[in-house]
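Subject: mismatched residue count in predicted assembly?

I count 1352 residues in my input, but I want to confirm that the predicted structure covers every chain. Input:
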Amino acid sequence: MNHPHLCSRRHFLHAGGFGLGTLALAELLRGDGLLAAPVKPHAPGESPRFDLVPKAPHFAPKAKAMISLFMMGGPSQMDLFDPKPMLQKYDGQKFPGEIKYDNLAQASSKVFGSPWKFAPRGQCGMELSELLPNLAEVADDITLIRSMHSGVNNHGQGLYALLNGRVTPGRPTIGSWLTYGLGSETQELPAYMVLAHPGGLPTFQGEHFTNGWLPALYQGTLIRPAEPRILNLDPPAHLAGRPQDRQLDLLKSINEQHLAEHPGELDLQARISSYELAAKMQTAAKEALDISNEPDHIKKLYGVDDPKTRDYATRCIIARRLVERGVRFVQVLNSGQSWDQHGSLISALPANCIATDRPSAALIIDLKQRGLLDSTVVHWGGEMGRLPVLQNDAGRDKWGRDHNTYGFSQWVAGGGFKRGCVYGETDEFSHHAVKDIVHHYDWHATLLHCFGLDHKRLTYKRNGTAASLTDGQEARVVKEILA
Amino acid sequence: MPFRVSLFLLLTAVAARALDREVTFERDVRPILKAHCTHCHGEEEKPKGGVDLRLRRFMDKPLEGGGHVLVPGKPGESEMVQLIREGEMPKKGKKLTAEQIAVIEKWIAQGAKVTKPEPETLALGMFITDEDREWWAFKPIARPAVPQTGSDRVRSPIDAFVLAKLREQKLDFAPEAEKRALIRRVTLDLTGLPPTPTEVDGFVADTAPDAYEKLVDRLLASPAYGERWARHWLDVAGYADSNGFMEVDSPRLHAWRYRDYVIRAFNDDKPWSGFIAEQLAGDELAGATHADTQQVMLDPHKRDQLVATAFLRLGPDGTDDGAPDTKLARNQAIAEEIRIVSSSLLGLTVACAQCHDHRYDPISQADYYRFRAIFDPAYDWQKWRNPSQRLYSLYTPEERAKADAIEKQIGDINREAQAMSKKFLDEIFEKEVVKLPEAEREPYRAARATAEKDRTPEQKALLKKYPSALALYSLDLYDKDAQKKVLDKIAEGTKLRATKPPEGMVMALTEVKGVVPGTRVMNRGDHDQPKQFVEPGELSVIERAPLAPKPTDTGSTGRRLAYARWLTSGQHPLVARVLVNRFWLHHFGRGLVNTPGDFGALGEAPTHPELLDWLASDFMQGGWKLKRLQRLMVTSTTYRQSSLSDASSKADPDNKLYGRFKMQRLDAEALRDTMLAAAGTLNRAAFGPPIGIARDLSGRIVVGQEELNANRDIVKVKSLGKDDFRRSIYVQVRRKQPLTVLEAFDAPVMTPNCELRSSSTVAPQSLLLMNDTFVLDTARAFATRLRGESQGDARGQIVNAWRILFGRSPQEPDMQRALAYIAEQTEAVRNYHHGIQHAKDAPAPDPHLDALASYCQVLFSSNRFLYVE
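Triage response: the counts match. Full output below for your records.
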C-alpha cells in the first residue's frame, strides 16, 4: 500500500555548500585537472554561485543526456523480461522454497507461472515476453539487466533507493546530480524536465524530481500533461520584445542588489537564474514541446495515431525533442503506481504494455536513426519487481503478484551501454538476483560513469561532509554492461 | 550523510559503543535481532525452524536437529553465532556487521542474561518492548528546567534553550532585525498580508519599549490572523471543496462551513483541547446521532460542534460519483481519514500499518484496526452513507413547513399543467380521429385509451398505422399556442420555488443510534479477507489505559469522545508535541522536528528536544491556547533576529540552531493576497461559499465563471465582480483544478492532506510573474492606485510603490533607474499603440499607465517582494 509522502521537504533542507570547505574541495578537485567543477571559483569569504553552463566531466563521457521512462509500481519481470521454465513446471503448486514476502503473514505460496510466452529476439537471442513485441524489434540495441536488487521492500523505500541512492526521501535525485555535475547543453530550456502523465503524478509526487538539498537550480521542472504544456509562454502584446527585455534587465539589477545584501542565499540566486531561463523559454519551449510538425511517419512510428498509445507516444517524442535541444535529463512518468499489480495481473499488465511498448521502442529507433542513441541513455524500469507466487487467490482473473526488490529487471540503451546484452540472473524462480547482482548503487555508479563522472568524486559539500549520490555505499561500476 | 541517519548505521553505531561496556539483551542485542532475525524467527505464524528469537527464554528451546541456539557463556558452541559468522544467517537481507556479531558474542560470553523479567505470554506477531516505549516521542512530556545563560538577549525560556545550544557550537544570536524588516516579517507571518506604510511608519516611530509587543497583540487580534492560520490547519486536515477520488472530482458544496469554523476558532482563540474534541466528536458532544442531527442543530452552539466533525469527512471520497468498486471505495475513504487523523494529531505514519505491521515503528496491523475501530461506528463501511447522505439541513421547523407548503403548491400547479396538456391533446384527438375510416375509429379510440403495456399486437399495429392521430404526447407539434399555455403554467411553479427559504446544509459525521459494527483486522488491508475482531483503542505503544468509551445518552458509542478526551488529557505523549512543533515550523521556517508528520523512527530527531517539551507542556498548562503560545514565540529574541549572520550561515546553513532568521519565500496564498492588497483591490469580505474558479482559454485556472457555448466549449471567463479579489482561503479548492497562481507556488494538492509544503524555485513561476493575466491585471490595478494617490508626481508614485511593497523607500539610484525605466517604457508602449488598429469601443491607450504597471510587475517579481527576511 501507499505510504504517505510529505508534500516535499526540500525547502527546509536548504542547500548549504558554501564556505571554505567547498572552496577547498573545489580547489583540490581543480588541481587534479579532472573534475566537474559545479561550483564556480570564488574568492575566500565569498559565497559560491551555481549555474547551468556546461561543465567538464571527470573523464571522457559516452553519454550526454538521459531519458528515464520510469515505471512506478514494479513491473513484473517474470512476465516481461525474465523467463523461468520452473514457474511453468510448478504452476499452481506450492513454492518449493522460501519466499521473501513483503507481508509474510498474508501470502500465498502458490507458484504463478507466467501466462505469457517468451521467445528469443534479435540477433542476440534475448528472450522477451510476447507482451513486448515492439521491444523485441530493438532487442539488439538494449542491455537487459535481470539482476537488479535494492532489498528494501515497499514502494517508497524502493523508489528512493532507485532515484536518490538511499531509502529515505528528501535527497537529490539522479537528474539533479547530473545537472549539478555537468550543467546543461541548453540555456533555453530547463536542464531537467519531467513529463507528467495525464492521470496525475506518481504516488510519491515531487520526490521523483526533487533537488533534495542541492541548490534549487537543479530541481526538475514539471511539464503539464496536456496543452498548454507550459503555461504563460506568451508575453503580453504591448510588452513583447524589447520592453520585456527592459523589464527583465531592471528586475535583474534589483535582484542583484538584494542578493548583495543577502550573500549566500542560494534560493535568491536560483530565482535570478530562473528569470533568465524563463525569458528564453518563451520561444524555445513552445517550439520544443510542439510535435505538430513532426512528419507523419515519425508520429506513426511512436503510435501517436493510436488512442491507446497517443499520450505516451507524444511524450516520448517530446523527450527526444528535448534531448535534441540539449536538455540533460528527461523523466517520463506514469501515474500513481500503475504497475503495482497485486491483483488482476492478467488484464492489467497487458494494458500497461500496450500503452508503453511501442513508444518506448520507437524512441530507440528514432534516436538511433538520428545518431543520438550513442550519446543518450534511455532507461526503462521501476522501483521493484514482483514475486513468483500469486497473490489474491480469488480466481485466476484476480490473481496478482506481491512486491519483490530482491531480484527484478530493467533495460537501458545507448549512451555507452552494450547492445544486445543480457546481464545478471535471478534464481530459477526469478525471486532473488543470484548472479552478477546490480544493486541500486551499482546502477548509479555505472550510470554516472557513462557520463564521465566518478560517483565518489561527484560530491556536494554540506554540513561539513561531502555528500554524494552513492553516499559511501560499496558501489561498483558494472563494466560488463558497458560497450 | 543523508539527512536522516539510516537505521542500519544507527544500529552499527550502537553496536560499536556497546563493546566498551556490559552488554544487555534489552538495550544491545534485541535491536539487532529485531532488525535482522525476528521477521522470520518469531513474527510470522510459524517461526522458521521452530526458532523464536523474540524472547531470551525462547532461545533455550532445543533445536529440531539437536544442538542449541545458544549456550550461555560459550559463544563458540552457540549455533546462532556460528550461523551468523558463516554468513548462513540471515538468509535474506543484510548480513550482520562484525561489530554486531561481536555484541552478540560478548552477550553470550557474559552469560546471555536479561536485566528484567520477560513477559509471561506473548501474542503472535509484533510485540512491543520497553525499549520501544523509550522512543523519545513516546515518553511522557517533561517540563525541562530552563537553562541559565546569563545573557541579556534572553527574553523568554525559548531564547534560553536556543542560546544554550548555539553556545555549544560557539555561536550567538544574530543582531535584532531592523524594525522595517521585523514588522513586515511578523505581519505577513501572523496575517498573511503586508503591513501598510502607515503601520510601518507608526511602528518605526514608536519608541516605547513594548512597541513590538503592542504590534503583535494588534496582529493577533486582527480578523486576518484567523484567515492566515486556519490555512495552515486546513493543509494538515486536507480541506478541499471537491470529492476527489474519481476523475469528475465533483464539487463538495458544503465543506466551506468547516473552513469558516476553523477561521473562527483561530480568531476566537478557542482552546485546542476543545478544538480537537469538536473535530473528533462534535456530534457526541452535541448529543446528536444521524436521525436527530437536524433537530439538534437548531441550537447554534451544537451546530458549530457538528460542523467541526467535517474534519473527519475531508478526505477524498468517490462513493457519490459511481466509484467502480463500491466496497473498495468506501474502505479507501475510511483509510484516507485515518491517515489524516493520525498524521495531523499523532505525527506518526499509522497508515503504513494498514496492510502489515509497521516496518520501522512499533505499530502493529492490529493496532491500526484498533485505531480504526474508534471511528468505525460513524463510518460503518457495510452500512455506508455516501457524502450526500451525510448532509443535514439547516431548516428550522417553520422554514421546513413553509418549504413543504410551497412544494405542495408546486405539485398542484404541475398537476394542473398536466391536466391542461391532456385536455388539449384530447381535443386534438377528437379532430384527428374523425379523419380515420369509420370502422377503425372505435378500435383506435380503445387502443389509445389502453395503457401502452396492455395493448394487444393488433392495437399496436393500428396505432402505428395512423401515427398522427394519436395525440398523446408532443403537444408542441400539434399546437404551439396550447403548449405555451402549459409551459406558462409550469413556469408559475418554478417561480414559486424560488420563494422557498434557502436551505443550508451541514456536512457532518454522526453515528446511527444503536448500530455498532464490529471492526476486524483485514488481511493485507483487504476488506474481503476479514480476520479477528478488535476493540477500539490507542496504539499499544502509547496506550496508558483502555479507552473505556461511555455510550452517550443519545445512543452514540462515545468512542471518539473518549479518544478526544485522552488526546487532550495532558498525558498524551504526542499531540501537544506534534502541534507545537507545527506552530513553530510556520513561524521559524523549520520544525524542531523537521518531519512534522513523522515522529517515528524514520523521522528526524528533534534539534531541541527540551525546548520542544517545554513548549508542549507550557501549551497544555496554558490551557491549550494558541495565541498565548504564539505571542511567546514571535516576541522571542530567536524570532526577532536579523536574517543576516555570517557565522550562522557558515556553520549552520540549514539554520538548525536558529542563529539567524531564515529567509522564507512567501507561500502561495500570501503571495496572491499580498499582491491584491498592494493593488488596493483586495476584498476583505469574510466567510461563505467558495469563490468559483474557471479554466480560461489559455488553460489557466482562474477565479471566475466559465461562459460556455452550445457545444459546451468555454467561450470566455466571466468576472465575479468584487469576488475576484477575495482572499485565497475563500477560493474554491478543487483537487484536480488548482488555481494556477497558487499551484505554481506550491499550494498543495490534497491527496489526502499535506503535512509539509515544498517551496520550489522553477522557471514556470518566473513565466507566471512575467506573463500571467492575474499578475498583469493586478500590476495595472496597482499602477492605477499609485497614480490616484500621487497624481502627476512621478517620484511620489515610485516612493509609494516601494513603501507599500517593501515597507521602505527607494534609494536615489533606485529612483533614478525607475524614472528612466518608466520614461523609456512609456515611449515603447506609445510606439506599440501607434502601430496597431484599436477596436472602436476599446478604451484609449494609456502608455504611461502601461509603463507604470510594467514597473509594478517588476517589483512584484523581485526577490525583495517574494522573500521575507
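Confidence is low (pLDDT under 50) at residues 1-37 of chain A. Marking this ticket as 'not a bug'.
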